Amino acid sequence: MKYIVSDANLIDVERGCAVEKHRDIVVDGGKIVRICAHGEADKDGCKVIDASGKFVVPGLINAHVHLFGTGMPSKILGGGSAQQKVLAFVKTKLGAKVLSALVASSAKKQLLSGVTTVRTVGDFYGSDIALKRKTDAGKGGAKGLRMLVSGMAITVPGGHGAGTFARTSDTVDGLVALVDETVAEGADLVKICVTGGVMDAKKRGEPGEVKMTFEQVKAVCDRAHALGKKVAAHVQSTEGVRIAALGGVDTIEHGAAPDEESVKAIKERGGAFVVTYSPALPFARLSPDVTKMNEMCKFNSEIVLQGMSAGAKAAFVAGIDVGLGTDASCPFCTQYNTWREVVYVDKMLGVGAAKALEIATIGNARVLGIDAVTGSVAEGKSADLLILKGDPLEDLRALRDIDGMMAQGRYIKRPRPSKMKNIEAQLDELAEEL
Ligand SMILES: [Zn+2]
């Protein structure tokens, strides 16, 4: 199918979000084949999508996603017997079906909220890998969504996600074998958990307790790189950043204030920091009555929040890429709120709407190594774009009101993911306070 997105205000994220007025964007075979002045393109055989007065931006890239959950706050994620029951269930035949339906529904919500690329960083039993195969074959509700998938994460016993979305070994050889296994299953990248996290922290003031050693991290990274895969690492403390950076990790997920040597190592590798304000902000700023988390979690979340800002700011200074992701599936991290993360990045890092939009599109594409394919609306790139009623540079909330979109050339008119009203109300309230 050939399309012309006609007479758009095109936002060029590769040139500081300059707005080019009255542009026609010609799409053929899933690619942007021509961008020209309105009226110049040959309309013969094209379906014309009127975008006059509207704004066209690249499809959003969500660089940190889990597909196994909805974002509804739940005690299950905190461990205990309820969690054990759920884990036992997903291993049954029926459970596997429920899980695959859940991840499919999540991916569809991501797509319908304007996300044209997701990177999963820890999902159960290869459910993300299976969904990617199906989606790439042009099947299912998330058709058009580009997926980079990690499968199960890797950590040591007692590490973040151990026993849930991560597999473990306590030896270097065992961890390397897990890398081989994960890649053989079809993973595009390797996710490791170097430190603990907010929900499994034991101590007030220490959310990012170091779990993996330098030797373990280095061995995992060396093997992944030998297999041509990047390594994304869950890290929430300065010492964790150091172990990850010197060990060879490509992206620091969440992050913390880095020391000088860490910054140097990440810069030399062409690595990046990927911030995820979407879980940190509600945990830190909403009342524990609402979040159903204890006071220690709230306190530790504020530490994580400050740490991720410190990491991103250090990256800006050093000229290291910064990416963003929503950590969807965490409590309050729905599968349809990537636009909120863009707002959070603007507010928390004080970078302005243009820079935040750039991070969510071409910036994330660079972080993921797919900027030759997507991340901007440009000739030769994949047709991944959003048509917005409002100007996102004036108000990023325009990203919430998508009039039409394309994902690898699949046109979706008025995409509308189903939403959870109470969570939306709480997040809207939180946004007011920023
Ligand atoms: Zn995560």
How does the SSE layout of this entry go?
Layout: E1 2-12, E2 18-28, E3 31-37, E4 47-50, E5 55-58, E6 60-65, H1 80-90, H2 93-112, E7 115-120, H3 127-136, E8 146-148, E9 153-155, E10 166-168, H4 172-185, E11 189-193, H5 214-226, E12 230-235, H6 238-247, E13 251-254, H7 260-269, E14 272-275, H8 277-285, H9 288-291, H10 295-318, E15 321-324, H11 338-349, H12 353-368, E16 385-388, E17 402-407, E18 410-413, H13 421-433
Parallel strand pairs: 1-4, 1-5, 6-7, 7-8, 9-10, 11-12, 12-13, 13-14, 14-15
Antiparallel strand pairs: 1-2, 2-3, 5-16, 16-17, 17-18
Helix pairs in contact: 2-3, 4-5, 5-6, 6-7, 8-10, 11-12
The structure holds zinc ion (ZN).
The site of zinc ion (ZN) has 4 residues, from loops.
Write out the CATH superfamily name of the largest domain.
Metal-dependent hydrolases
> Count of DSSP E strands?
18
Oligomer: single chain
Low-confidence stretches: none
How many individual domains?
2
The profile of the biggest β sheet is: 8 strands, mixed
Please tell me the CATH architecture of the largest domain by its name: Alpha-Beta Barrel
CATH topology of the largest domain: TIM Barrel
Question: What's the average pLDDT?
Answer: 95
Count of discrete alpha- or pi-helical segments spanning 4 or more residues: 13
Can you identify the CATH class of the largest domain?
Alpha Beta
The percentage helix is 25-40%
Question: N-to-C terminal Cα separation, in Å?
Answer: 43 Å
Strand portion:
15-25%
Structural class: alpha/beta
Radius of gyration: 21 Å
Bound molecules: zinc ion
Shape assignment: globular
